[in-house]
Amino acid sequence: IFDFEYEGHVYRIQRYKERDKSTLLEFDIQTIEGSWRPLTERSVRETESRIEQVLRMDYETFTNASFFLQGKADQFAQQRPSERKRILSSILGLEIWEIYRERSAEKRKSLEYELSILDGQLEEIINELKQEIPRREKLKTLEDSLASLTALRQSKETSLDHLRRLSAPLEEQKKWVSTLKQQWLSGKEKLEKKHTELSQRQVEYEQYKYKIENADLIKSAYQKWMEDVESLKTWDKTAADFHQHEKLRSAPLLEIETERARLQQEQQHLSDRSSQIDELGNLLTSWLDEIEKNKTAMSVHTAQLQTLTELRESLNNILQTQSEAQAENKQLRQEMNELKERITRLNETSGALCPLCGQPLNADDRERLIKSLGEQGHDMGDRYRFNQNQVNEISRQRQEMEERLQKLPALETELRTQQRLLDQLLDREKLAQDDIKDWQENGAQRLILIQNILETDNFAIEARKSLAQIDNELKQMGYDAAQHDAIRLEEQTGREAAEQYRLLEIAIASLAPLEREIKNLQENIAGDGYELTHQESSYQQALEKYQKDSNALPDIFTAQSELLNIQEQENRVRMEVGAANQQVEVLKTLEIRKQGLNKKREELQRRIGQIKLLERAFGKDGIPALLIEQALPEIESQANEILDRLSLGGMSVSFSTQKDYKDKNRDDKKETLDILISDAAGKREYEMFSGGEAFRVNFAIRLALSRVLAQRAGARLRMLVIDEGFGSQDVDGRQRLVQAINLVQSDFSKILVITHLEELKDAFPARIEVEKLNSGSNIKVLI
Length: 783
Fold this sequence. Notes:
By secondary structure, the protein is α+β, with helices and mostly antiparallel strands. It is built from 16 helices and twelve strands.
């Protein structure tokens, strides 16, 4: 968890990771009430982007502007010139102009898309306006065709009216023919119904006559059925008494079967328990064998675990030795490189001044200094090689130990697993012994007793006595169920005789009235036949006269059809005339719309041109470049002020933002950010310097960047961190660096310097000392 204050707000960042799970990142801001409001996004990547937006810088910008990483003090200067310019732009907060440029580009693209749509609309309107002459010619042709059809339709309507006046009497005659036809068909239908009814009555008459002829047989069968009904009533009463008494058997039977089921269930439970006890005895033997094997294996694993634990302690000791040797070699490598550089420069110089410190130096002093430095370097090399051999040997031992220690987690897990298994086996053994003892003392004897009771039916004695007495009483009642069923079947079969007897009575009562009805139907059919013949004759005469009169007139239906076709053609042409006229009229609206779209197009083109100017202004070669040009003199002035102190006035720095292309034919300049350094040897590019001099330049530029940014209104960086950076300087150079740091301390809320040099302990008012011990690190705060 990391809490920090930034621009008047307090933020909290939490980053944690559980085993076998993804990293989680949470970002919160503290409210006025003191609670935390989440700013976390959907993913870790999006949350990191949100943090960079709030801080307005990424890791690279921060380390280039305010954090002197160990061994990377030249990180800003070592960047490519184009990359330096990008980092400087980010440090100065100029990335907002890129956002403005992107928004302008989006607006321009939107307007260009709108312009393309507008051009498409104008093109459609122009193409449609070209159709004016063909549309007017088509309208004239359709109007002429409509006038001809209107005149023809009026002529056909006059002819049809004349035909309708002539055909009016004929319509009355047609209605009379239809009336006569309906009367004839209605009479014919009534006569057919009477013939059908006569046939049905004649069939009924024959059926009734057959029933009466067989009256003796029907009456005899009916008498037999009546006798069966009386006999069935007697048997039903006897059966009711028998079944009422038979219900008394249910109670003793239920009691007997209930007791039998209970005993059988208990017998089955005890039998299952007997089988389980037998199986448990077999398992007990195998468990005892497993217990002995498990105890033996645990003894072996415990001894192995003790050996590996001692090996892990040895590994920790040699790793401590390896870490110390590597740390010493890192410092030795840096010091040897510095000695080598100093020896090289001493060999190359031929003047009377020391190229390292600028003090007077004769030839003998130089030789002694080179020899002294060489011996010092040789001693450092011997120590370095000894440490390196020790590191290699420890690495080999470490690999062997780690390969053996890889078995430690699995061994510990196996030992825990065996212990759990042993505990389970011991619990099972005790439970099994208890179950077997309980069965032998109780369950086995009970199983033998229940088996004897079921085999001899020696249970529910009183219920068995009651059941025997009830069965004896039922036997004395003399009820025969088979004879009862036979009488019931005969009665059901004889019910048909009762129905036949009822129909016989109906036939006797209905025969005489039915004879009279048949006679009346025969008389009515004869009269209706004569009347139907007369109606048919009248209809045929009227139909012949109507057909003769209608043939003498022209076909009115053909005339109506011709008029209808002409009306349809006229209506269709009239609709086409309306559509053609509308297509001509719409051209006037299109012309007005075309003028409006042209004005709108001119306005869009004007706005697009303005936005393109804004894009160029917001681009890297526009306002941001001007702001960088304005900021560089201030950064250059601050850097030279610091560098003047560090070099005793012997060095200065300047920036170049443009240079010529390799192509000499080009008139424009290439955008860049070169660093030029002036000293006693003249003006050279930064890349020509190395060692302590390069560090002084890096320190001055980096400190100037931080100082300029801190002095600006609304500055975002208020902390300066310097990790090492003093090792490449001599005593005077270190003192000047300390003075430079103290010079800018008022511009920052906090300056943190990290160093291993003992002589710098008292150079700053407060310090945190970290001492490495065998048991860990000890931290001491001194103010």
